[in-house]
Specification:
5 helices, mainly alpha
């Protein structure tokens, strides 16, 4: 009886001491940041303008397909990688923090250009 209990204890101890395997993501964190950034930019364009979606080039699914193609990723791989990230929320949040940071930088650049254009046009009217 003691030998069985000791064996079970040692077995449990050996499993608890093993390092957790690190997830090998199908798409690296840096690449995922870039892909998600581009997808969100496309979403911004698609949601902020009245585009004639009847033109096959301007259909949202084509925007997304072209972004994935840019990064040499097929849709099933992207979907699987996204699933991996959602199953690892700490890493997924880290990825999204980087995406949000890039979007904020882009927003600042656009805002600065807009303010400069408005200021320049006001100077021309004088």
């Amino acid at each position: 009886m003691k030998i069985g209990a000791i064996s079970i204890f040692l077995l449990l101890l050996s499993f608890s001491c093993q390092e957790k395997k690190e997830t090998k993501f199908l798409i690296s964190e840096d690449k995922m940041v870039d892909v998600l950034y581009d997808l969100h930019l496309a979403d911004g364009v698609l949601n902020s303008t009245e585009l004639p979606y009847s033109d096959s080039i301007l259909r949202p699914e084509n925007y997304y397909a072209n972004i994935l193609k840019k990064y040499n990723i097929d849709r099933p791989t992207f979907d699987s990688a996204l699933q991996q990230y959602t199953e690892n929320p700490q890493i997924y949040l880290k990825v999204y923090d980087k995406v949000i940071g890039k979007l904020r930088i882009q927003e600042s650049k656009l805002s600065a250009k807009t303010h400069k254009s408005v200021r320049d046009s006001a100077l021309v009217r004088r």
